[in-house]
Amino acid sequence: MTANVAVETTPEIPLWNDPDRPVAVRVDALIGAMTPDEKIAQLYGVWVGASANGGEVAPHQHDMEEAVDLDALLPAGLGQLTRPFGTAPVDPALGALSLLRTQSRITSANRFGIPAVAHEECLAGFAAWGATAYPVPLSWGATFDPDVVRRMATAIGRDMRSVGVHQGLAPVLDVVRDARWGRVEETIGEDPYLVGTIGTAYVQGLESAGIVATLKHFVGYSASRAGRNLAPAPMGARERADVLLPPFEMAIREGGARSVMHSYTDTDGVPAAADESLLTGLLRDTWGFDGTVVADYFGIAFLKTLHGVAGDWAEAAGAALKAGVDVELPTVKTFGAPLAEAVADGRVPESVIDRALRRVLGQKAVLGLLDPDWSPVPPALEGVDLDDPEALRGRVDLDRPENRELAREVAEKAVVLLTNDGTLPLARPRRIALVGPNAAEATAVLGCYSFPQHVGVQHPDVPVGIDLPTLRDTLAAEFPDADISVAHGTGVDDGDLSGIGEAVDAARDADIVIAVLGDRAGLFGRGTSGEGCDAESLALPGAQQHLLDALLDSGTPVVTVLLAGRPYALGRAVAESAAIVQSFFPGVAGTQAIAGVLSGRTNPSGRLPVSVPRGPGSQPTTYLGARLAQVSEVSNIDPTPAFGFGHGLTYTAFAWNDLAVDAEQASTDGEFTLSLTVRNTGERSGTEVVQLYLHDPVASVVQPVQRLVGYTRVPLEPGEARRVRVTVPADVASFTGRAGHRIVEPGDLQLRLAASSTDARLTATVTLTGPERQVDHTRRFHAPFTQEPAAQA
């Protein structure tokens, strides 16, 4: 194969390397100079692992793929390097050196000197050995605080860029539809507005650091039947449009995300990876997205092996390209020889290759990878002698004190106090019985995409790489005068009852019992939470409920603490625990955050991003149910949650009053303004989370009983009051009508100012007037809040 056309260049620099020319001009010139093989090479990645001694990466041998011969591939070029830091433990400085040397090899091997885009996972921090493990996304949702999530993402992005990474595979914008799904911990919650606002903040932070944020999983992955991973997703068009798509709309329009990863699932028989109406018609033609669409790992091959809509690899590649997928990840398969042969014999038109390539090269140009002064040396290694790799070991710190301080702030804001009879905060207890499988387990704070749980478990002889104090450690520091006895009781999921007697004895000898229960994160059945770790029911795993019930029978007050990746039904504990503290895999500073809540050093302000079920088998647990999803006289199953979405207690009290509505009527293109006073009537500072829910009593299609349309955190000192004002545009009342378009209908609405989905404090009934109005992705997403000091009583 030969180059297509001659291209204008200057004696000094090829046109495509000239940063003073428009990106589109540079890209078109480069495409015109490339052979078909060189074009295709930019559209796939190779899964690699950084060398532990700083040498070049070696291809990762995955059991789903054949071995890759880099020497054979690199003369044509390479689009992406998959997870050079996230495949095996490697010192960050030596990993950066390894990536540097590999990029030098890539650029010297292809005739245009184009480096690869290096991508990594960053669902709970940079998934690299020795990097800070932040709280999982479900904890981000529990903060109800986009600002702290934005700052966290910025820190994560800076660490990634410092060692030569360009793209992060996060955030997950799937909305929880069934809490039995193993990947609930990776989501932000069960409400699309919460997912959209928190997810958009994460995108903004990552992109501000120069990292390409990748939205996952587009779209419908979380709607799988029975909560099974990679299972059929029987969602209707309205569920997809009104529940699952809005977070992606928001993150693209307001977050500036530059990449989207297609979902594994199909919608009504059409897999996302081959859905042209989704990946091109909606994403690009309607929403105007101009970034790259990357494949979820092996997703293009799955068109043949799992979905059965392609007869061979070339057909799978052609279907994905036609639909709008630009890059095959994690490694070359269908986009390699099968695609080259299909282009050569005319089965796949070269024009679809060029379309994807234009987007890939455009992104590389914006990243500076086509500039003449591009250097493979990342910021962390600038000015450093690279000739002595061993001297570099330990030089790059990805778990700095400022990272851990930020992780602590997120973790503290994410702890949710579910119930409390006054036992908390603990007042200098003399004897504490610390019981349960997660009481002294260091990794109990980590999610499945943290490096130690995702990769480190496969290397048991390698140190974990970060400091992970157990709850036993942090309680000893929090209560230095207390006698703390520890009893395992039972394992997370082993069903062992033999240690329960010892645990009960410890409880009877104590002043207070702290029962630390929950999950173990893992992959594909190696944990109780995580990818491929789906639950048959929402009962606590193993024999943990037996242990909890026995402790409740001990006669000693029990504080139940959950370190988990999903909500669980807690049986008797809902009514009989002295207190329940919920934490969703809170990261490196998680146990300090929990200890601070138990002692009262921290006043909890987290709110539930997912409902906590009353029973283990009542599904769905999401609060976004229509009237038929509520408790009724014609079914013996009561789906009412034990604790609803948005619920969370504090150690102070707040009074809400003086609701005012500027106008009770507005047109279907207008807005309402509500205001109220929130006052801290307790004796200590605290934060209230004011939530705004919309109830549409009569609509042309069935609506959820209520849905979140706004929220704000209100920090208050004792006795302090603030006047909180919210402007509610009619657009937030929009939904997908019978004709398939998003509309705003005239009629009455209830605007509920609430402490949770089950605790409305003030309600305004308002009316939209005028004609039905059609809106689209440019609609107003938010009901913005403002706050100002209120007059003192």
TrEMBL record:
Family annotation (Gene3D superfamilies): Glycoside hydrolase family 3 C-terminal domain, Glycoside hydrolase, family 3, N-terminal domain, Immunoglobulins
Domain annotation Fibronectin type III-like: ranges: 688-757
InterPro entries (alphabetical): Cellulose_deg_GH3, Fn3-like, GH, Glyco_hydro_3_C, Glyco_hydro_3_C_sf, Glyco_hydro_3_N, Glyco_hydro_3_N_sf, Ig-like_fold
SMART domains per record: Fn3_like (SM01217)
This protein's record includes keyword Calcium: no
GO molecular function, one term: hydrolase activity
Alphabetical UniProt keywords: Hydrolase
Record protein name field: Glycoside hydrolase family 3 N-terminal domain-containing protein
Classification of source organism: Bacteria, Bacillati, Actinomycetota, Actinomycetes, Kitasatosporales
